[in-house]
Amino acid sequence: MSEALAEKAARLDAADELAKARDRFALDDDVVYLDGNSLGALPRSVPQRLADVVEHEWGRLRIRSWEESGWWTAPERIGDRIAPLVGAAAGQVVVGDSTSVNVFKAVVAAVRMAGEGRDEVLVDASTFPTDGYIAESAARLTGCRLRAVAPGAMAAETGPRTAALLVNHVDYRTGRLHDLPGTTAAAHAAGALVVWDLCHSAGALPVGLDEQRVDFAVGCTYKYLNGGPGAPAYLYVRRDHQPRFDSPLPGWNSHADPFGMVPSYAPADGCVRGRVGTPDILSMLALEAALDVWEDVSIDAVRAKSLALTDFFLECVAHCVPRGRVECLTPARHAERGSQVALRCAEAGAVMRGLTSRGVVGDFRRPDVLRFGFTPLYTSFADTERAARVLGEVLAAERGA
Ligand SMILES: *Cc1c(COP(=O)(O)O)cnc(C)c1O
After folding, report:
1. Which protein residues are within 6 Å of ligand 1, measured from CB?
2. Is the pTM of this model over 0.85?
3. In the chain, what are the domains?
4. What is the mean pLDDT of residues 239-247?
5. Is 245 an active-site residue?
6. Pick from 364, 357, 245, 380: which is nearest to 305 by CA?
7. CA 318 to CA 320: how far, in whole Å?
């Protein structure tokens, strides 16, 4: 029976059109890496590019590189490479700062843009914590009340006093995919603006920012976009909002004439307004090289493989793991599933240590969740079968002990 699953994995891998992308990453044959939803694997194009940046652009050209090596324009240039992955036309995505900082910019700017009498911000009740902390401060600064609402109830809860909504596209804990088109349309119908956090969806599934008329979006680049630890985040400002985008962090890099060094602030045109200070060039250019892995890759193909991987993982878990030992927190319906599987499991911390020591790397979220991230560019069906099989072995060994 488990041989049948191994054979099925081999068949699925042989038919996988994205299998070629796996060679674009530095991976170990003896490790199944299912933590790319926390820190994406290293693309092979990065080390050499980073060495060139350090030795040539910084080491030799030094200050000249701001212009000659294109450092100054990197935030928008790299934003334009992320744009197609999130369904945005060029000129609307700027790279820099962390997701946390971009959440702050977007929420404050959204409240400032909302009409008179709107003094409420809704935040996803199950949000990744940093978004909630930042939204609370942004609301306090702008004189708004913050209300935590389940993402599924946001459409109904948005009212005439709602200025802005901040929602995670995919729940980082359970892997639940929220209804971006429906929530965005309902918010707009009620006159509010929406900020989507794409940390767990960009690079894993189609987002459709322009098509859905999303107002603002933020996301990190070190998860499914493989930009490296602490890689800069991005901010999407819809084109027709850009002239009214009033940043709460108007640093000199977002000035219309940054080298005019004038005392009064005048914002640049376009998404450049989302910038703050001097960008982290080394991380930024590592990210740029990392984005090479998306060459010839369609996000629809990524989504199809992601769902096939998570379906297959659940099938293997049902076969390998004693009934009742784990409970799946990730929705079964494809329309509600991101690109990870979260299993509630007693002694989850010890179980994840057991998995890691046997070469299967996922992560543990307190108190009792095992998370397995599926990154279609480099996760194979054979990896998936092995992860479930080893999970079964770890749980069986624990019972025998
Ligand atoms: C990973 C993640 C973050 C991380 O924010 P940083 O500022 O990069 O630390 C924020 N929000 C969500 C939803 C995330 O998944």
Report:
1. 98-100, 128, 130-131, 168, 172, 197, 199-200, 220, 233
2. yes
3. 2-30+298-400 (3.90.1150.10), 48-294 (3.40.640.10)
4. 98
5. no
6. 380
7. 6
